[in-house]
Amino acid sequence: MNTIHDLWMRLRGLLRREAVEQELDEELRFHFDEQVRKFVEEGMPLDEAQRQARLEIGGEEQIKEECRDARGVRFLENLGQDIRYGLRSLRKSGGFTVVAILTLTLGIGVNTALFTIVHGVLLKPLPFPQPERLVSLWERDVIDESSFNPVSGGVFADWERQAKSFEQMALVGEDTANLSGDGGALPEMIGTRQCSYTLFSILGVQPALGRFFSEEDDRHGANGTAVLTYGLWKRRYAGDPAIVGKSISLDAQKYTVIGILPAWFDYPDTRVQLWAPVHHEVSEMDMHNRGNHRFFVTARLKDGVTVEQAWSELNSIQERLHQEFPGDLMGKGANVVSLAENLVRGVEQPLYVLMGAVGCVLLIACLNVANLFMARVTARRKEIAVRAALGGSRWRIIQAQVTESLLLTMAGGGLGALLAWATLRWLLTLRTDLPHAGSIHVDGLALAFTFALTIFCGVVSGLLPALAVTRSELLGPLKEDSRGASGGKKRARLRKALLTAEVALTVLLLIGGGLMLKSFAELRSVNMGCTTDNVLTMGFSLPDARYPTNPQVASFLEQLLVRARAVPGVSRAGIVSVLPGGGYFMDNTFAIEGAPPLPAGQFLNAVVRGADPAYFTTMNIPLKRGRFFEDSDQREKGNAMVITESMARKFFPDGNAISKTLVIDWENKPRFEIVGIVGDVLSDLNQPPEPTMYMPINSGRFSYGSLVVRSDHDVTTLAVPIEKEIAAMDPNLAVSDVLTMEQRVGKSTAAAEFDALLVLVFAALGLILAAVGLYGLLSYLVTERTNEIGIRMALGAQRSEVMRIMFVDGLRPTVAGLGLGLFAGGVCAQLIRSLLFGVQPLEWRVFAAVAFVVFVISAGACTYPAWRAARVDPMTALRCE
Amino acid sequence: MPEQGIDLPQGTLDLLILRTLALGPQHGWAISERIHQVSSKVLLVRQGSLYPALHRLERRGWIKARWGASENNRKAKYYELTKNGQKQLEAERSEWEKLAAAVAQVLEAS
């Protein structure tokens, strides 16, 4: 009961402050009057009585202070006072306030944004029940050393039968499909996944509508069923629940929509639109084939089984299988990783680097604000001294300073949270490749983080300047000689130290950004082995249902080329199964006819591509030896193929590849004669070229691919006419990724470009802040030393000498910071070496460029104040103080 | 002539104020006068101690205040004991008596 009353009284004391103060005044006056009356009654004269009574009271203000203390609201009253005063003084120095708030908004905003991303992508557990039991299974070392090889259907079946560590396992395969437009909508190519019916129960997901696949659906020859993602459902079917149960047309086949996934489900990434049962989609042969590695395997560990135990079991099973079936192309072992780890591989490091970069930006912002505050402290020396004289303890002054600083950082923090929210929205539209993109949003945790940053910045920026107020300064300025020498010197030292730190951090950022940019430039300028100028590409995939036989496929492709070449403006056109830079995609094992057979378990393997003869000239892929295959080759001489230089080097080191015959490990073991060697083309910008063989597409074996078109004029204008031709040939055929080669390459390097630019933008901001800080610091130093400059000049120093002195004074902390930053940069560069492509971590060009830029800008920032110092009139300087 | 009184420790002052108010509501000046008189002019309660103590006691809920008219019809703030204050007075009084007895015993012992 007492504590409640206590709080109530405190609250009353706070809220009715005016009234309470007035009451106290009256009470004390009454006491005084009564005391006087008593003295007068005792016989004292009035004025004597009044004097005595006044003596008795003592210090009225002190009594009031004690009563205020007794009321228990001291701290809050002080706080209220500090806040009011702080707001007033911030309003008065508008420029400073705006600059400080903007600086802080930026620092806090980008930090919150990135923290939210890091948290959503890397730290949050997967949104599935018991996510730590979800794992990803891989084959290991299939041909060369590789830790994470996709799994074949046959191996999966073996694992399912033999492995005991897992509750359930599921296959996931990747594909695309033509989604027909019903009712006039255009056909669309969508990314799909095929999965075992067990997948959704492994993940522990419930459908938003309808149901998921049952064992009956997951069979060869079952009726086609499909589960739509929430995004596809909303986008294409307007979120109409009636779609469940209706049939849609995928690759010219009927599929019944049986369910819709919940909105938050974005596994494995947001580009997947639809799921179908794997046994329905993939041929029986492929499902039992041990050599065709096309699946990703997801599984749930049994209760109590660790990842290590599961790994050791699966690895030994695979080792056994490898020995049991030496004729099959299989992994020598297996790998088990947690699903969470698997999803973020490759994204982890860049994100942490970015996080480090924004951390630097925040520190720079804080240091800048602290520097700004210190300048103010100097300007307010007298005010602080007066406060001290009125009884303010050092602690009280610090409190006032920190409160003012917190006001600034709260404003910065509030705006920063808004900036973070806006930044996140923009970022997510740009980077669709981020896993768990759905769980990245500004939530309570992000706001708490913002708040924590705000408090951190406020305390740091407020504490540093306040601590720099020396004891002598609390008294000194009130005397006539208001030099405040000791305080000024101490502050100058501190400001120089802050500036050194700022410059060091900026240099660090510049080095990081510079290295990443160079790396990106190297990546971009990699010679892909083909031309990328003015080449248009578009992808297509002929559905088996409408083009069931090879001759039908071949005839369509032939027609396509004829019609494409006939479009005005097209100078060359060709078709290829997978574009340069399109990834590894497909490979196959083969044997060289006439060569001695390999021992069991050893294989020859190369990347397989299909192309038409004009493809090579369209893409300017050089012919090194022999000739291209021609349309007549198939009819007259059997099959012909061309191989790449790297393949010739690898399998025919003595250089006589031409006219050798390869037997491909396909169903009917087709034979191809090598008729030519072409230049290498990169399938992945980051990797060296793979040995590749090109087969003619007029065999009709490749029912998917991309049309490439070159023109002498702007090739983008040809997109629509060509698409019209395709639509005329088959109105239900969807065309995807209509892009120029330049755009394709840009897309594949987009992430590296983005990361590099972001770090550089931060570095540029840091540089601006540091430059402004340096300018401010030197101006301050000049002002502080005006008297000294006057004396020097009166004693005969030249103006140029004065300028030199001030210049050096300003540059010294900068150079110190530069040195520190270069050293730190060298260390950090080693840490990010795995992100760098074609660039050494200690790339001297980058370091030199950074040093040069920072030096020049610093010198620039120092110029005006130093020049001003030289302009000082010695007489004025000596007179003023 | 104002006399030099013995300065009271805070807790004791509270006790004396509560005791004084047990006799009926009074304003601040009257409380200090009464203590001064009843203690044979030994105890002098200065305003510097009185009013902070009164505010503290009010905050704790042991006394409550209201404005009223004084003897010579001037506006004055009267304090009176609350029920909780009454209980507190009895508790502190018995504490004080125990303390005084104990101190006396120690002083008596040789």
Mean pLDDT of chain B: 85
Shape, principal axes of CA atoms of chain B? globular
| Total tally of structural domains of chain B | 1
The fraction of residues in strands of chain A falls at: 15-25%
Describe the global form of chain A.
elongated
* Strand tally of chain B: 3
* Main sheet specs of chain A: 11 strands, mixed
CATH topology of chain B: Arc Repressor Mutant, subunit A
Radius of gyration of chain A: 38 Å
Q: Which architecture of chain B per CATH?
A: Orthogonal Bundle
Number of DSSP helical runs of chain B? 4
- How would you characterize the largest beta sheet of chain B? 3 strands, antiparallel
Helix content of chain B: 55-70%
Looking at this structure, what is the CATH superfamily of chain B? Winged helix-like DNA-binding domain superfamily/Winged helix DNA-binding domain
Q: What's the assembly state of these chains?
A: heterodimer
Residue stretches of chain A low in confidence (pLDDT < 50, at least 5 long) are: none
What's the topology here?
The complex is a heterodimer of chains A (881) and B (110).
Chain A: H1 2-15, H2 17-42, H3 46-57, H4 60-71, H5 74-92, H6 94-123, E1 134-140, E2 151-152, H7 153-162, E3 166-179, E4 188-195, H8 199-203, E5 209-210, E6 225-228, H9 230-237, E7 247-250, E8 253-260, E9 272-277, H10 278-281, H11 284-288, E10 293-301, H12 307-324, E11 333-338, H13 339-344, H14 348-379, H15 381-389, H16 394-430, H17 444-467, H18 471-475, H19 485-524, E12 535-541, H20 550-566, E13 570-576, E14 587-592, E15 604-611, H21 613-618, E16 623-626, H22 631-637, E17 639-644, H23 645-651, E18 661-664, E19 671-678, E20 692-696, E21 704-711, H24 719-729, E22 736-740, H25 741-748, H26 750-784, H27 786-794, H28 799-831, H29 844-870, H30 874-879
Helix pairs in contact in A: 2-3, 5-16, 6-14, 6-16, 6-17, 7-12, 14-17, 14-19, 14-26, 16-17, 19-26, 19-28, 19-29, 20-24, 26-27, 26-28, 26-29, 28-29
Chain B: H1 10-22, E1 26-27, H2 28-38, H3 47-60, E2 63-69, E3 75-81, H4 83-108
Antiparallel strand pairs in B: 1-3, 2-3
